[in-house]
User: What shape does this take?
Amino acid sequence: MLIKEFRIPMPLSVDEYQFGQLYAFSVESLNNTGGGEGIEVIRSEPFKDVQMNNARHSGQYTYKIYHMGSKAPGFVKAFMPKGSLEFHEESWNAYPYSKTVITNPKFMKENFQVTIESVHHPGGSDVDNILGLSEEMLKEREVVHIDIANDKISSKDYKADLDPTIYRSKKTGRGPLKGTWQRSQKPLMTCYKLVTVEFKWFGLQGRVENHIMNTEQRIFTLFHRQIFCLLDEWCEMSMEDIRKFEDHVKKELDKQLKHGEPRGMTAE
Assistant: This one.
């Protein structure tokens, strides 16, 4: 098992981030769905009074299936049979806290699970144990700081229109993000994401767990660059606007899953 806590400062308020996250995820879902691969939304509904992280929470529950197909890494496709590259995601969004659990019920079953617990907090990335981890988990946890402006990304992932060092919001005046931008940026909040990966397969455990963690870091980096650089598209939306957009996206996902071609990030 691997445990990492990713800390991602953002030039947003905690309230703003909620809207940006929901909007950007819908956009990215469309970009990654098509031709039998991508995201299928099974359920999206409110939940009430669920016990998580030593507290009772209410919020929005979603159940999705990720049809990976060609997007899965080659060494994963080599040992997983055809038709099993299907990952199920359950998410309980009780913002500013959320929990996501990813499994592979068709093949790996109880031998595979990724859990992501997130807390969104005002200020910088200096809160040491915001999720209240036990001493045992703190010993196992590795902290990884992500800087959406200064961290290097691969040339294949780079898009000029999603570059925080270039982007300037016309509606808010924020950006570009340069150098030590976190020291002077207002507003500022941080996403704390605790990722726990468990893959029980002799001979492949370490390689797969490390690959998943590296993939999560890459996706977190690209996704949060996208949230900021789409700021002018979502900053004036209400939650009602967001939910209508999500409903529209769900219908489009159903169409694209069968016909369209995906355009966005892959797992490679």
User: Anything to note?
Assistant: The first helix runs from residue 14 to 31.
